[in-house]
Automatic annotation (TrEMBL):
Record's protein name: Aminotransferase class I/classII large domain-containing protein
CDD domains in UniProt: AAT_like
Organism: Cannabis sativa (Hemp)
Co-factor requirement: pyridoxal 5'-phosphate
Record keyword Electron transport present: no
GO MF term list: kynurenine-oxoglutarate transaminase activity; pyridoxal phosphate binding
Family: Belongs to the class-I pyridoxal-phosphate-dependent aminotransferase family.
Aminotransferase class I/classII large domain boundaries: 32-378
Length: 397
């Protein structure tokens, strides 16, 4: 049997991402991993104890922990001034990733257009195309990744069904401004369009930047699906507890899809989520402070090496560093060299850009910058960052 002939059309369209291609090389060179967005330091002890206790208490079966929905509703209602009903408007999923996929399957039909900002976290497009939807990219303008309201307005058509907003943003570390959120909300309302937000970095913002949920803007609470998770706020990306919060008809569709795909998120970790979601505010203050000092360390380190850092991350735990203008290598070539010569791996920026011919023509965007960025993750222990600094110190541009 020729297995390749048996693959579905959609499966054939997916290729390994640049990061997957490089990870084998990185492993063979024992490289320090500044590529992937997961912390390499321990999760909070009180959370681990809660998970251990849940396992000892035999929470081993399929499970829906309503208390998680109750706490989430309380948090978002207080924080974003919403009126989420915990009984009907919250779906617990396996991480933001499943929440996002279920949200897309709940609202996207064949040929529906979905607006995304470019550069963009990679998984959104796959979900949209699997649902038969069409991703339409709106380029954010470098070096500060600003949103041009005119570009956004021109991207809507009568087929636009939804817009995806990730703030704080992976890969750039941008936190969308209030003015930008207002433009997005205004367009969603006047075009009668839905929004799916990805707020996994909601607690990781720096300087005076604050996270605002798009759902809290005028006219948006009935047209926004909030997705988020425990992964980044509590350094537990492997626990797979996330959620979607949406108007009840949509939330109910998401729940139905979630049950069909995975049935339920891991039971002991849902129990531990009850502890996470009642964590006192001091935890989040410390989290921000820690990440802010890691960000400052990385900015200084990479500037010292010769990268151009025109945009200091305002949130998330990624730094999108630009290669010097006259540097003869592309992002891909440079990352290969960085792995082989100094033993540090990061992600070539090109994987986050999605050249969209239609849009390129429409907006006359210059896409040449797309192979000039490298994404460094700084969600790593001080020890890891110091070892990376030692190795990167030997690079000369
Ligand atoms: C923007 C963004 N959204 C979602 C995720 C994945 O979240 P989860 O672990 O909850 O599926 C990541 C992980 O890197 C991310 O960067």
């Amino acid at each position: 049997m020729e297995a390749a002939n048996k693959l579905s059309t959609i499966a054939k369209t997916f290729k390994p991402s640049p990061i997957q291609e490089l990870s084998h090389l990185a492993q063979s060179c024992n490289a320090i991993n500044l590529a992937e967005g997961f912390p390499d330091f321990p999760a909070p002890l009180h959370l681990k104890n809660a998970a251990i206790s849940a396992i000892h208490s035999d929470f081993n079966q399929y499970r829906h922990v309503q208390g998680v929905c109750d706490y989430l509703a309380k948090i978002v209602n207080e924080k974003h001034n919403l009126d989420v009903n915990p009984q009907t408007d919250v779906a617990i999923c396996c991480g933001q990733t499943e929440a996002f996929a279920a949200a897309v399957f709940a609202i996207i039909d064949k040929d529906d257009e979905v607006i995304l900002f470019d550069p963009c976290f990679e998984t959104y497009e796959a979900c949209i195309t699997m649902a038969g939807g069409v991703p339409v990219y709106v380029a954010l303008d470098p070096p500060h990744w600003t949103l041009n309201p005119e570009t956004l307005k021109r991207s809507f058509t009568e087929k636009t069904k939804a817009i995806v907003l990730n703030s704080p943003h992976n890969p750039t570390g941008k936190v969308f401004t209030k003015a930008e959120l207002e433009v997005i909300a205004g367009e969603c309302c006047s075009r009668d369009c839905l929004a799916i937000t990805d707020e996994v970095y909601e607690y990781v913002t720096f300087d005076n930047n604050k996270h605002t949920s798009l759902a809290s803007l005028s006219g948006m609470k009935d047209r926004t699906i909030i997705t988020s998770s425990l992964s980044k706020s509590f350094s537990v990306t492997g626990w797979r507890v996330g959620w979607a919060i949406a108007p009840h008809l949509i939330a109910s569709a998401i729940k139905n899809i979630h049950v069909k795909i995975t049935d339920s998120a891991p039971a002991p970790f849902q129990e531990a989520a009850l502890t996470a979601l009642t964590t006192p505010p001091e935890y989040f203050e410390l989290l921000q402070k820690d990440y802010e000092s890691k960000r400052d360390y990385m900015v200084k380190l990479l500037e010292g090496v010769g990268f151009q850092i025109a945009f200091k991350p305002q949130g998330s735990f990624f730094l999108f560093a630009e290669l010097p203008e006259d540097f003869p290598f592309t992002d891909m070539e440079f990352v290969k060299k960085m792995i082989e010569k100094v033993g540090v791996v990061a992600v070539p920026g090109r994987g986050f850009f999605h050249a969209n011919m239609y849009l390129e023509k429409l907006c006359e965007v210059d896409y040449k910058y797309q192979n000039r960025y490298i994404r460094f993750a700084f969600c790593k222990s001080d020890q890891t960052l110091a070892s990376a600094a030692q190795r990167l110190g030997s690079i000369k541009f």
